[in-house]
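Q: Could you fold this chain for me?
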Amino acid sequence: MFGIGLPELVVILLVGLLIFGAEKLPGLGRAMGKTISEFKKGMKEDRTDDIDKVEKK
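A: Sure. Below is the predicted structure, expressed as structure tokens.
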């Protein structure tokens, strides 16, 4: 998982908890998940557009 082990992940979560607080952390995680899914969706659409352009030639 990107070279991040369990101890590193725990440290990252604790720092996030200290910076943003317990109330905002779930919302930030949700927003990050939506951002990643939209990025993947855009990349997938871009690939299919490229394939369509190649097939039309």
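A (continued): The chain has a mean pLDDT of 83.
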